[in-house]
Design goal:
- By secondary structure, the protein is of the alpha/beta class.
- The chain has ten helices and 14 strands.
- The strands form three sheets. It has an eight-stranded parallel beta barrel, surrounded by five helices. A four-stranded antiparallel sheet has the order 2-3-1-4.
- A hairpin with a 4-residue loop joins β2 and β3.
- The longest helix has 17 residues.
Length: 332
């Protein structure tokens, strides 16, 4: 339930209304915008009489929210959320580029790629230390040693790092990680999401392979309800009947999510298409559609990559793409 206050409302009157909401058994969040002040009654509001609230002197209007997500809802939080990581502002006026290899393989590999993508305009470095793989026999990542190498690459390049967590037990290893990624397979790992809600780190939340946008926002709600509102949504393609690409990239998710939520959204064209030659087109289309950024796989020797080489751009190809993205962003 959203309560819009009149501009004449005093601090004492607002506090009385907050206390009333708490007495009625709901939690109350306050959003102070440039013009309006909103109170969000979060919880079971079915027993609350709207007309009784509208009769209060300080209330301008009251609206029930049908969507089950409250904190992620744009109605409660009309202004876009921005998340600062290093020098990058995700959700700001310019799209942010996150780039790096699917998996960390060696010190030389990750440090070399970090410098290459930084020189091309990337503001964050991605790299997998823990790798969820369909086959138990496939390369599973260097695990804690992979995180150590990412931190070395961060020292060399100055880029903040983004890497994926797979289990609650791994959290202590992520103390120095700048952005924790929740992969598609863990989007509904609710116990993990609850723990991430207790952290103070930005969370990059990927959409599940067969998940609806509402389910994605509900997963974001798990994190936000725990106190961590630094959530970045990521569309990485969903599973459909189409086999020409690895997944089907849902670019319509960008305007839909922008309408439903205030959280920033980035696009992963690498996992969506599964083919390096398709990545540039989908990356450019995503920026044109209003995405707040991209996360792109880059490898200095894709044919020899231990993971997902077929969808990885070379540093040279990434540089060419980054320059074209700048032109699109400028045109918009």
């Amino acid at each position: 339930m959203i309560i819009k206050l009149k501009n004449s409302a005093t601090a004492e009157q607002k506090q009385q209304l907050i206390s009333l909401g708490e007495q009625l058994g709901v939690s109350v969040c306050t959003v102070v915008g440039a013009i309006d002040t909103l109170l969000g009654f979060i919880g079971d509001t079915t027993h609350i009489d709207i007309e009784q609230l509208e009769a209060l002197d300080i209330v301008d209007s009251v609206k029930r929210i049908q969507a089950p997500y409250k904190k992620a809802n744009r109605i409660i939080h009309p202004e876009n959320t921005t998340i600062k990581v290093g020098d990058a502002v995700i959700g700001g006026s310019s799209p942010v580029l996150i780039a790096g290899p699917c998996s960390v393989e060696s010190e030389e590999q990750i440090c070399s790629i970090a410098l290459d993508v930084k020189n091309s305009g990337a503001q964050l470095l991605r790299g997998g230390a823990f790798k969820p793989r369909t086959s138990p026999y496939a390369f599973q990542g260097l695990r804690k040693d992979g995180i150590k190498l990412l931190l070395e690459a961060k020292q060399v390049s100055g880029l903040p790092i983004v890497t994926e967590i797979m289990d609650i037990s791994q959290l202590p290893l992520f103390d120095d990680v700048d952005v924790i990624q929740v992969g598609a397979r863990n989007m509904q790992n609710f116990e993990l999401l609850k723990e991430l809600g207790k952290t103070k780190k930005p969370i990059l939340l990927k959409r599940g392979l067969s998940s609806t946008l509402e389910e994605l926002l509900m997963s974001a709600e798990y994190i936000m309800s725990g106190g961590n509102e630094q959530v970045i949504l990521c569309e990485r393609g969903i599973r459909t009947f189409e086999t020409a690409t690895r997944n089907t990239l849902d670019l319509s998710a960008i305007p839909v999510l922008k309408n439903l939520s205030h959280l920033p959204i980035i696009i992963d064209p690498s996992h969506a298409t599964g083919k390096a030659n398709l990545v540039p087109s989908m990356a450019r289309a995503a920026i044109a559609a209003g995405a707040d950024g991209l996360i792109i796989e880059v490898h200095n020797n894709p044919p020899c990559a231990l993971c997902d080489g077929q969808q990885s751009l070379t540093p040279e190809a990434f540089d060419t793409l980054a320059k074209s993205l700048n032109r699109i962003a400028a045109a918009l």
